[in-house]
Amino acid sequence: MRVVARRSPEGGDPVSRVRVVIVxxxxxxxxxxxxxxxxxxxxxxxxxxxxxxxxxxxREQPDVxxxxxxxxxxxxxxxxxxxxxxxxxxxxxxxxxxxxxALSVSDAAEDVVRxxxxxxxGYITKxxxxxxxxxxxxxxxxxDAVFSPRLAGFxxxxxxxxxxxxxxxxxxxxxxxxxxxxxxxxxxxxxxxxEVAAELFISxxxxxxxxxxxxxxxxxxxxxxxxxxxxxxRLL
Amino acid sequence: xxxxxxxxxxxxxxxxxxxxxxFVLLTFLWGSGLLLYAWLWAFTPWxxxxxxxxxxxxxxxxVAWILTGLSxxxxxxxxxxxxxxxxxxxxxxxxxxxxxxxxxxxxxxxxAGVWATFVDRPDPARGPRHALxxxxxxxxxxxxxxxxxxxxxxxxxxxxxxxxxxxxxGIALVYSSTFVDKWRELSGERVRRIREEQRSEMAAHxxxxxxxxxxxxxxxxxxSTEVARIARAQERELRAWLYDGDAPADSDLATDxxxxxxxxxxDYPVRxxxxxxxxxxxxxxxxxxxxxxxxxxxxxxxxxGEVSVYIEGATDAVDVYVxxxxxxxxxxxxxxxxxxxxxxxxxxxxxxxxxxxxxPGVGGAxxxxxxxxxxxx
Lengths: 236, 377
Fold this sequence. Notes:
Number of helices of chain B: 12
Structural class of chain B: alpha+beta
Oligomer: heterodimer
Number of strands of chain A: 5
Largest sheet of chain B: 5 strands, mixed
Structural class of chain A: alpha/beta
Shape of chain A: globular
Largest interface: A-B, 38 and 36 residues
Radius of gyration of chain B: 38 Å
């Protein structure tokens, strides 16, 4: 599901820049991130709270939203919802081609998993460098999932891979296939997708497919550990 | 007397005598002072006694048992009345003598129960067992009177019915202290919850301000600079304080390696990410931990930059991967006198029956050390 042509304000430019909206309640963080992002990424808008974010996303229809997990103004979206989750749930229906990348500073696994289950395509830590964030933005814009080593470790744990549970068929939602486990283990060990591909003698595209499949399971599975364990353990 | 006036005086900042005088004056206003006193006494939370507080005074006279005994005497008297009037049928229930005796019995029994549960409770010499015994005795007495009263319900009419209600009320009063206890417990629980809420509010605030700033400093200063290292160490400390309030002292392998990574980050220009999955039964003092620490030290010292540590603990085995992206090295080219890798990692793992492999990272960049230990049992 690679995006071939991205919307571009100039129109018709085949290698148009990735348009992002940054949602974070700290202006200092937004401006820092904006100046750190690669030249290939255009910041189309910024927002500091849930309502502003929904408005900016619907107006700008960006390729990617860099979304802080914790945001003010989520009170009306339900008692439990973190701000990031509320933004996805409210903005996604009106911005069908926009993808969300969660940013977090030190949140509980519970919060990160909630945002991913709401529809985010992955998450990165706020300590990541501008280059890392840029790479993640491009990957998400291309339809890939972004898994940090910690998220991979959590997934291995939550899907029972550590205790030897393996999916028999590829469409099983509550367990990982043997290949998906291998990919997750390598990501947990700090391998980049390219290195995972070289190690397993598969193409980088196949690695991305596996990662996307795992992300889908993470979003759709009803395994109770996903929420129960996430509550107990901290991801970051 | 039971400390209520003292507590109130302490709370209002008045003198004890002043408070007592107010209570006495209020008592003349249709007894409202007494009622207020009783109410305050029942619902004021116990003040936590300090370590040097005097021991709770112990009353030597078993008031509750004396009252119980008197009520049993009263009960016998009612039986006496029933016996003498027995020939004339159950009409005894309407005589004033019966009323007097049964009311006195009821009052004594209720008094005994209330005394035992309210007054004697803080007394260390008379525990909950004592209160329970008095309650059972008193309930027995009241129960018998109640049965007698009910058996004459048809003859006594409305008067007997009222008597029965009084008795039931008395039994309820004897057990009321349980509900008062519950109420006190609940209010204590609420105070604790409010404190917990305040703490998490503060955590949320620090999370939103200080942690964000520390993250920003790291990311602006560049990963391996001195400033970034200090900010990272601060962030780690703050996070540990915010979230891991009561971590167990007995640390497992993952916790130990995380702490070690934090220490290494202060000493070397390195960023170590420790990821763990599964439950690690391996103790931090074990040989696997020692070998893993050595591998991490090597990575920090010779490679620097980004180092990934992954620990996977299955039920019968533990795997540790330490991967760096440094220049790498050839194990065969390391001189024999360099003990680090050979002795501290490879030989150590061999000795405990595990395995260690050192290999170049994928694409020739860096080194990956893999430790594996399977539980023999």
